[in-house]
Specification:
- With 423 residues, the chain is of the alpha+beta class.
- It has a single domain, classed as Up-down Bundle (Outer membrane efflux proteins (OEP)).
- It is built from nine helices and four strands; from the N terminus they run αααββααααββαα.
- It has a four-stranded antiparallel sheet, with no helix packed on it.
- Helix 2 packs across helix 4.
- The chain is elongated.
- The chain starts with a helix and ends in a 12-residue tail after the last helix.
């Protein structure tokens, strides 16, 4: 039933998106991705699988009960040629309970719990990774939409420039080369509009893939505005709370418990068993029976297998401890780099905005001078190209700062979904 419901939800995901013409907000993207994204569905299933593993490991503390029944009928020929019936039937109920296993059962359950914790942290990492993929796709759509609008403004600006130069050329105040260049710049601007529109179509398709649907949305609603980074201080406490570090730390604990499980084979094992049953040779008369007892076993010689298993488990523990140390060192470096990239991107965006404002003022002044004949074409054209390129640079800087912020949150293992109840 659950499988059928899941398939129905996934199949109707694209239809639900196609039926709306509203631009998607970030919150709507998050909600739809949580419901439809295959990676999240798979990650949740992986956690549930480990939960069942804990239940399985707990079963060794409970009695094991089994029932058995049999019935047979046959005939055999005796020495006189007569056939004798042979009937038999029996039923039994058996119970067994481990009383002591050298601590192995306790260690197995704790190891299963450690593996579940690893699975939970892996799920947390999956949440963050999927959110990063979604966020970057959402940012790309906003950027592509703004780029289309910007290139359209640039094309209009180039068209205005062509008209201005045409008037000056007709009046004998500009040469044919300047007019030809301005027309070529207009053709290039119109090409960039078409290129930006194609990029937007891809960005929308990529956003649909990140959500987990086939049909692309009509667009996205939002602004490219990264939050200003605050002070983080010491990165070590943040590093120790990342999913990757917690996974490595829990793997060390799981290795220690695995060593305990292996060592438990050295100790005697003690178990209790009991059974009761009925049997009959004629289907009419049944005789009862019962038994109860204790059994123990002690490994005396295993051909060096036990010693080898313990030694191998110790080496595995050393590997996990060294992996934890290496993971911590690597995470400190990557967090520092991610933080620096975030801060640099936000500061660069501020600088690019100041440069854009300055270039726009400079372009207004130069255009007025060019119209009055106080500035030649080459200098005016250089300033025009600079302000146009600066507009593109500022838009790219806004995109970069948003992406760097998303990367920083992902480096910390942060996710909106991880803070929700039940996740």
């Amino acid at each position: 039933m659950k499988k059928r419901l899941l398939i129905t939800v996934l199949a109707t995901a694209g239809v639900s998106l196609a039926q709306t013409n509203a631009l998607l907000t970030w919150e709507q993207c998050l909600a739809q991705t949580k419901a439809y994204n295959p990676a999240l569905v798979s990650a949740r299933a992986a956690v549930r699988e480990l939960e069942y593993g804990v239940a399985s490991a707990t079963s060794s503390f409970l009695p094991q009960i089994s029932a058995k029944a049999s019935m047979s009928y046959g005939e055999s020929e005796d020495s006189t040629g007569d056939w004798d019936e042979k009937k038999s039937s029996s039923g039994s109920l058996s119970l067994s309970q481990d009383l002591f296993s050298g601590g192995g059962n306790v260690a197995k359950r704790k190891r299963a719990l450690a593996q579940l914790e690893i699975g939970i942290q892996q799920y947390r990492k999956s949440l963050s990774d999927v959110e990063l993929q979604l966020r970057v796709a959402y940012i790309d759509v906003l950027y592509a939409q703004d780029l289309v609008a910007l290139t359209e403004k640039i094309a209009k600006r180039r068209a205005d420039n062509v008209r201005l130069i045409q008037l000056r050329f007709d009046g004998g105040r500009e040469n044919a080369g300047s007019l030809a260049r301005s027309k070529a710049q207009l053709s290039d601007a119109r090409y960039e509009v078409r290129e930006a529109e194609r990029s937007l179509a891809y960005a929308l398709r990529n956003l649909a893939a990140a959500i987990g649907t086939m049909e692309p949305p009509p667009g996205a609603k939002g602004d490219l505005q990264a939050a200003a980074p605050g002070e983080v201080g010491d990165l070590k406490p943040l590093m120790e709370q990342t999913p990757s570090y917690l996974i490595a730390a829990t793997q060390v604990e799981a290795a220690k418990l695995g060593l305990k499980v292996t060592r438990s084979a050295r100790f005697p094992s003690l178990s209790f068993s009991a059974s009761t049953g009925l049997s009959s040779g004629d289907y009419d008369t049944y005789r009862g029976s019962w038994s109860a007892g204790l059994s123990t076993s002690v490994p005396l010689y295993t051909g060096n297998q036990l010693q080898s298993d313990i030694a191998a488990a110790k080496e595995g523990l050393i590997q996990n401890e060294m992996d934890l140390m290496d993971e911590g060192n690597s995470l400190m470096a990557s967090l520092t780099q991610s933080w620096n990239n975030y801060v640099n991107a936000v500061e660069s965006e501020t600088v690019q905005k100041e440069l854009l404002d300055a270039e726009q003022l400079r372009a207004e002044i130069s255009t007025a001078k060019y119209k009055q004949g106080l500035l030649d074409y080459e200098d005016w054209d250089t300033i025009e190209n600079t302000v146009i390129n600066q507009g593109k640079s500022y838009l790219q800087a806004r995109r970069t700062s948003e992406t760097r912020q998303a990367n920083w949150k992902n480096a910390l293992g942060m996710s909106v979904w991880a803070t929700e109840k039940g996740e």
